[in-house]
């Protein structure tokens, strides 16, 4: 030791280095947290960590936003989570969690939540059960991704396809009516005007059979295509039992 060296100087230098290292580690951790939060915002994805025994649920900032809250503005728990699950999905969601708790198996599901303002959001959720050495479940942890826009877009595509199918079906039906009914009646009319009543009656009979067949296909009702029903209705209207087609 020199004449000017104080015995506490090495210790102070070591403490200063440790403080600097701690500040650096804290800054790096804060940067990492900020990057993760930014990534979750961009992906509209949040994560959760639910401790079963204490019913304490840790949510990431983005998960609060997904549920319609500012980060940290409510105290999350399993009961709070269930309150936000859409009533029609609640039983299915709890059954998924029961199965995971009983088996330790990971899970994936689509669920709907209802935000405080009443807006319904669609989430793609996954999770896993964390157990102790004896296999006792301790925690549920996983992620939730807001897929509302994707689900709504798919529903719109399905609805557009359904409407297009209905339009195409109506066009086919109109074409069949024209080909089998309108043209048949027109031919019968012309035959009648020419005095060919036998051929007119034959056209009417063919048209009636085609109409009954189309009624059966459209209505899918047993007996709808039975010509005897049409004949009996015609008789009831005053045509008489000997009505000629």
TrEMBL record:
Its EC number is 2.7.13.3. GO terms for molecular function: protein histidine kinase activity. Keywords: Coiled coil, Kinase, Phosphoprotein, Transferase. Residues 107-159 form the PAC domain. SMART domains: PAC (SM00086). It is an enzyme of class 2 (transferase). Residues 15-42, 150-177 form a coiled coil. The keyword Nucleotide-binding does not apply. The keyword DNA damage does not apply. InterPro entries: PAC, PAS, PAS-assoc_C, PAS-like_dom_sf, PAS_fold_3, Sensor_kinase/Photoreceptor. It catalyses: ATP + protein L-histidine = ADP + protein N-phospho-L-histidine. It comes from the Bacteria. Residues 59-104 form the PAS domain. NCBIfam families: sensory_box (TIGR00229). This is histidine kinase. It comes from Nocardioides marinisabuli.
């Amino acid at each position: 030791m020199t004449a000017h060296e104080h015995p506490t100087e090495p210790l102070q230098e070591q403490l200063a280095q440790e403080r600097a290292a701690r500040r650096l580690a804290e800054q790096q951790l804060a940067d990492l947290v900020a990057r993760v939060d930014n990534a979750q915002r961009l992906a509209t994805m949040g994560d959760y960590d639910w401790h079963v025994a204490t019913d304490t649920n840790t949510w990431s900032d983005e998960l609060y936003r997904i549920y319609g809250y500012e980060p940290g503005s409510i105290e999350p728990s399993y009961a709070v989570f269930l309150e936000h699950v859409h009533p029609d999905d609640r039983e299915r969601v709890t059954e998924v969690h029961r199965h995971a708790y009983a088996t330790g198996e990971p899970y994936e599901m689509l669920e709907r939540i209802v935000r405080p303002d009443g807006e319904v959001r669609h989430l793609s959720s996954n999770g896993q059960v964390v157990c102790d050495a004896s296999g006792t479940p301790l925690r549920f942890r996983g992620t939730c991704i807001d897929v509302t826009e994707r689900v709504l877009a798919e529903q719109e595509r399905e609805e557009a396809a359904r409407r297009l199918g209905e339009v195409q079906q109506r066009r086919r039906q109109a074409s069949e009516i024209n080909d089998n009914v309108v043209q048949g009646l027109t031919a019968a009319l012309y035959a009648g005007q020419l005095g060919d009543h036998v051929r007119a009656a034959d056209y009417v009979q063919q048209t009636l059979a085609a109409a009954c067949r189309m009624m059966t296909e459209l209505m899918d009702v047993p007996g709808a295509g039975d010509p005897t029903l049409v004949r009996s209705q015609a008789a009831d209207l005053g045509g008489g039992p000997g009505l000629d087609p």
